[in-house]
Amino acid sequence: MAIDITIRIAGEGGEGVISSGDFLMQSAASAGFEVMTFKSFPAEIKGGYALSQVRFSDDKILSQGDGFDIVVCFNEEAYQINKRLLTPGKVLVYDGPDEFEIEAHEGVACYAIPMSHIAKQELKAYISKNMVAMGAVCELFGFPVDSLRRSIHDKFIKKSQAIVDQNYAALEAGAAHVRDHYGKDPTYTFPEAREAKDVIIVEGNQAIALGAMAAGCRYLGAYPITPATSVAIAASKIFPKADGYVYQAEDEIAGVASTVGASFAGTKAMTCTSGPGIDLKSEMIGLAAMAEIPLVVADIQRGGPSTGMPTKHEQSDLFMCAHAVHGDTPRAVLAASNVEDCFYRTIDAFNLAEKYQMPVFLLSDAALSLQVEAIPRPDLSKIEIIDRLRYQSNGSEERYQRYQLTDSGISPMSHPGDPGGTYCATGLQHQENSAPRTSVEACITMDDKRWRKIKNIEDDIECTSQGPEKAKVGIISWGLTQNAVREAMARMLAEGMEVAALYPKLLYPVPTKAVEAFAARCDKLLLPEANYQGQFAQLIRAATGIDCIRQNIYRGEPFIPAEIVARVKELGA
Ligand code: COA
Fold it and tell me: Fewer beta carbons within 10 angstroms: which end of the chain, N or C?
């Protein structure tokens, strides 16, 4: 029988919600299942509502799903937030019966486990409350306890053997309570382990670092900022293996400036940040565009404006990445939709930056940054890597024309030390030989050249679509929202609904040919996105004149498939 189970751990920051979810994820993945996680927590180190959700299935998981099957509530607040989702068939495991009371939930199996009491009174270790809960979960649903013990060991041995032992004891105490009071849950049973697949278990931000490495990036300069820091942390673990370097700069500007410098010197380079960091990096991004220096900027979006919601999902930096920087500044904006995409879109970002010698933004977001998936091991031999067009001296005495006017607009680039390749990489307007110049001719030819480069950029990045040739409703989506749309599409097509979907990866310049061709297939267009202004919808209208019906959420959480299905039904598909 096909398995598709979602288990949610809900509690407070500091109660070990995230570790618990990670342990369950590791168990499911090591038992050969597809896994996808969703985590949401406050910006505080301690306190505030936190959740960690693990979905596991036999089949490819397209999104985090609509909700949960099993919820484990570590405290009353977590119960109060989740109780409206307790519909018949679901299971509640909670810190009871003495900590707080629950209402009657018809058709819901409710298991009171005195997590706090056991941890405090019996184990004298309140921090292990989460492992009491996990012991109960293992016993109720048959989760492989050995695998949980392995996870406990691997995580806590760095602290001490005593902490490992204390958590083993907590696991056993939770399991014993279930054996003594309930027995197995009749509805959900963790299935037999499957044959292990050739997958790697990766988090969104790790996949960006791995993609950068695969693309040949050997320098990352950045300043720590939630939720982008873990890109740099992951890179710092892998780049040195290939003589690469990660520089934690003193601020955002130094992070990007050092990256532009590294790329100027001949190393593929990137910076990573979140929205507030782009505010600060803009001027340097303009320099990369003007001096035609390849630059990759990963923007792991968070809720804004200002410091906003550092740990929450939002897709609201698209305008900024499409329009940041004063003057007419060519750039491209790509977006990743899932963990595998984080890897491949990062490679695309480097390929575009190198090919067109300009800044390229890669958009991810707070939810995707933490999302863990088991993805097929990438076959590096099948990945196309593009390097910048290099200058080769022909030995003549003629001055090197760094910004040589070519049909494509792309000019061969020298690196410092290349014989005959000396030039002035300047933010000032310049002429072909790179000398600053503001003559009418220089202004026009150089602006035209920089924009000529990306006239056909849409052809570089495939834009896929799904569904029938003619549809009543066509959905255009980007970034993480594409996951919810993919799952919604699977359900709607199975119901025979006349609906199609377009999945752009390149958002700016807007892929007008793909959007116009898709619009011609559909009676109505719907564009769901997690921002207030309908940013991609507005960019599409500006580029094509096509108006999409907007579906906007701005609640710090991603779309779920059910709300896309509901809106498409309202539109009559
Ligand atoms: N026994 C011993 N230690 C345990 C434990 C157990 N049973 N369960 C958890 N812990 C430890 C964890 O190892 C972790 O410590 P570590 O960081 O030294 O590894 C700590 O307790 C927190 O547990 P964890 O499961 O990782 O998280 P949580 O669910 O309690 O939530 C966060 C805490 C994640 C919300 C919080 O720490 C955080 O990071 N907040 C966001 C901060 C941020 O980014 N702010 C934005 C600034 S702009």
Answer: N
